[in-house]
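Private note to self, pasted from the team thread so I don't lose it. Backbone tokens:
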């Protein structure tokens, strides 16, 4: 039953990452969020394959899993997430050079931090992960406030709940193992994967709400798809 829950949670995260990542790119041209969502989904796919092949801790897939984990926990679902959401909160659209640079930074961080494995507590890296999560949560609180302010209360509440859940996962990840969990931390990772999937799902619709509000208010140009829809309505 625990293994089934893990697989279902992982499949949910994989779907959310690839599907909503593609929608971020195709509909909004937001490569920061789109590619990061897809990277998380790729990480989940690697995790799924590793589990299917027996979960060996001395293989290539295990090392890849730690790289992706460090990639997203350090820079991906922190700095890249904030920069991507700033598209609708501050009309910030970074250049291609900045986009490439921040993903390169995440790759370097992932390569360095993946050496600190979960078989023992590494206080420095673990504390770093918690600190960057707290800073990201502070921005997400502002993001939730912006949603509430425009009347998108459903999206605001949903974003607040998944943000709180994500922070709980981040804090417990290294410092507070779940009582009764197995050596592979199956229960914890099931909860973590499900939470990360819901974060990608909820943040997409929250982003859409702010984007649509900005378009209506004239704060940003109408997207090509919406422009075509408006044109059809006028005929």
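Design output:
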């Amino acid at each position: 039953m625990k293994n089934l829950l893990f697989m279902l949670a992982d499949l949910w995260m994989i779907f959310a990452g690839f599907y909503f990542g593609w929608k971020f790119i195709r509909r909004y041209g937001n490569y920061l969020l789109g590619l990061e969502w897809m990277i998380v989904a790729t990480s989940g796919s690697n995790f799924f394959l590793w589990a299917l092949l027996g979960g060996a801790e001395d293989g290539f897939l295990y090392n890849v899993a730690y790289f992706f984990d460090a990639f997203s926990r350090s820079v991906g679902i922190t700095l890249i997430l904030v920069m991507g959401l700033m598209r609708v909160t501050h009309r910030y659209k970074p250049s291609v050079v900045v986009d490439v640079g921040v993903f390169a930074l995440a790759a370097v961080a992932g390569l360095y931090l993946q050496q600190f494995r979960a078989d023992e507590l590494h206080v420095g890296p673990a504390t770093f992960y918690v600190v960057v999560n707290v800073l990201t949560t502070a921005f997400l609180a502002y993001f939730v406030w912006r949603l509430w302010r425009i009347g998108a209360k459903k999206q605001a509440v949903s974003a607040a709940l998944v943000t709180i859940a994500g922070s709980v996962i981040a804090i417990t990840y290294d410092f507070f193992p779940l009582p009764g969990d197995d050596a592979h931390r199956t229960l914890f990772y099931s909860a973590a994967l499900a939470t990360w999937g819901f974060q990608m799902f909820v943040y997409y619709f929250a982003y859409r709400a702010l984007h649509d509000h900005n378009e209506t208010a004239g704060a940003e140009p109408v997207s090509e798809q919406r422009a075509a829809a408006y044109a059809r309505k006028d005929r």
